Amino acid sequence: MKIKQSEFVISAVGPSQYPEDGLPEVALCGRSNVGKSSLINKMLLRRNLARTSGQPGKTQTLNYYKINEDLYFVDFPGYGYARVAKTQRLSWGKMIELYLQEREPLKLVLQLVDLRHAPSAEDVKMYAWLSHYDIPMCVVATKADKVSRSQWIKHSKVIRQTLGMPGHVPLNLFSSETGQGRDELWSLIEQVAEIPLNTPTEPANIMQETEDNG
C-alpha cells in the first residue's frame, strides 16, 4: 500500500470519542513491550508517529491513526504489565471488550506476540477472547530479525500450538528493523478492509507455504 498521508487523530477512552466517518478500522493488541508502536511506524514508514517508550504500560487509551483517508489503525493499551494498577487493567479490559463487541467499522485485529518466546498466559487469554467474538484476526510475530531464519518454523509452531491457532488464522513474521512481513501484512489489510489494491502481488508468506506443503 502506498502511504500518501498518515496522522494521529485522537486518544479515545470511549465510544463518544471514536471517529464517526465509518472508515474501516484495524486494531492492534499485545503485551506492553511487544513492539506495537514500532510496527505502526514501520507500516506507515514514519519514524515517530506512534511514540515508542521505555516505560511499558504508557498507552492507556485507544489511539487512532488515520491512513490515506482509507482506514484507521487503532492501538490498544498494552497488557501484561504488572505495575499497572489492577483497577486500571480492569478499566482497560472493559473498554476493549466494549469496542470488540460493538464497533461496527472494526475489520481486523492484529495480535502481536514476540517470535523469540512462547506466548504468555495473557497472550493466550487475549487470543481466546478474540476468537470468542469471531473477529477476523492475524497473529503477528514481531522481532523476527532477532531469530535466525533457520529457526522461524520452529518458533512459529510454538506460537501456533500455544495459542491453539487453527490453520486458517494467518501468522505473519514481522520485523520493524528490516521490514520483513510488511508487504504481506498490507496485502491482508487491503483485502479484509476492502481497500482498492495499489501494491503489486507479493510472494506468499514463507510460513504459509511451509504449512500448505506440510
Structural account:
With 214 residues, this protein is α/β, with parallel strands linked by helices. The protein has one domain (6-213): Rossmann fold (3-Layer(aba) Sandwich), CATH 3.40.50. It contains 6 helices and 7 strands, in the order E-E-H-E-E-H-E-H-E-H-E-H-H. The protein has a 7-stranded mixed beta sheet, sandwiched between helices. The model is unreliable at 53-58 and 199-214 (pLDDT under 50).
Mean pLDDT: 85
Spans where pLDDT lies below 50 across 5 or more residues = 53-58, 199-214
Q: Mind summarizing the main beta sheet?
A: 7 strands, mixed
Report the β-strand fraction as a percent range. Answer: 15-25%
CATH architecture: 3-Layer(aba) Sandwich
Care to count the β-strands?
7
Shape, please? globular
Indicate the radius of gyration in whole angstroms. Answer: 16 Å
Give the helix proportion (percent range).
Answer: 25-40%
What is the CATH top level name? Answer: Alpha Beta
Task: For the structure shown, list the relevant keywords.
seven-stranded mixed sheet; 32% helix; 214 residues; Rossmann fold; 7 strands; 6 helices; alpha/beta
Could you provide a short overview of the structure?
Helix content is 32%, strand content 20%. By secondary structure, it is of the alpha/beta class.
Secondary-structure topology with pairs:
Layout: E1 6-12, E2 25-30, H1 36-44, E3 62-67, E4 71-75, H2 86-102, E5 106-114, H3 121-132, E6 137-142, H4 152-163, E7 171-173, H5 182-192, H6 206-213
Parallel strand pairs: 2-4, 2-5, 5-6, 6-7
Antiparallel strand pairs: 1-3, 3-4
